[in-house]
Amino acid sequence: MTSKKSIKNKVVGKLKQVEGKITKDKVREAEGKAQETHGKAQAKADELKKKAAKKKEELGE
């Protein structure tokens, strides 16, 4: 399951990107892209942790 923190980072990052595009603020847009990417990385890490735990359980460890 994706964590609330990763979802928040993806949404807030996307909002910052849109804000940056509307206001023509390249720095704000880049901050948003970075935050959205961070959220995606968090979601992927959560997914991998879950898979690893499942595999460990299957192996009986």
Automatic annotation (TrEMBL):
InterPro entries: YjbJ_sf. This is CsbD family protein. Residues 26-61 are annotated as: Disordered. It comes from Limosilactobacillus portuensis.
